[in-house]
Amino acid sequence: MFRDKIQEFTTKIALSGFLLTANFAWSKIGNMKSDSKKKITTDELAGMVARGFDAVNKQFNSINSKMDEKFKAIDGRFDGVDERLDSLDVRLGHVEKGVLDLKGKTNEFDNKFIRQSEFNALSLRVVRLEKISKK
Do 2 and 26 contact (CB within 8 A), yes or no? Predict the structure, then answer.
């Protein structure tokens, strides 16, 4: 009966997210023989559970500190990426300005000179007119 109560208790702990604590408590109780004459007091049981929680707490603290270190490293990398993106924005602005300048110059060029297709069409017309005028 006592073993069933402990198993139910450790199951509840495991269900609430403290599987390591439940396993710790269960392993301590499992090491005791059920037919032994030594009885566990509630204080001893509370001590076992407390030690289990302490072990889990230490593991969480260790994990949290590792996560903090990793997040700081990632933050540093993101800062570097932000700086590079800012630099690229500036460079892209210069490229856009250059493209607009070239576009303006090609429009001026188009206005000053005729296109090759127009030149060929006019050349053909001149040749025809010359043939007609020679007749």
Answer: no
- Write out pLDDT tens, residues 96-131: 999 999 998 888 877 777 778 888 998 999 999 888
Query: Is 21:53 a contact under the CB 8 Å cutoff?
Result: yes
Contact (CB, 8 A) for 51 and 28? no
Say how many residues make up the chain. 135
- Number of domains making up the chain: 1
Q: Which two tokens stand for residue 123?
A: 């050349």
Domain coverage including residue 49: 2-112
pTM: 0.38
Is the Cβ–Cβ distance between 49 and 25 less than 8 Å?
Answer: yes
Backbone φ and ψ for 17, nearest 5 degrees, come out as 100, 5
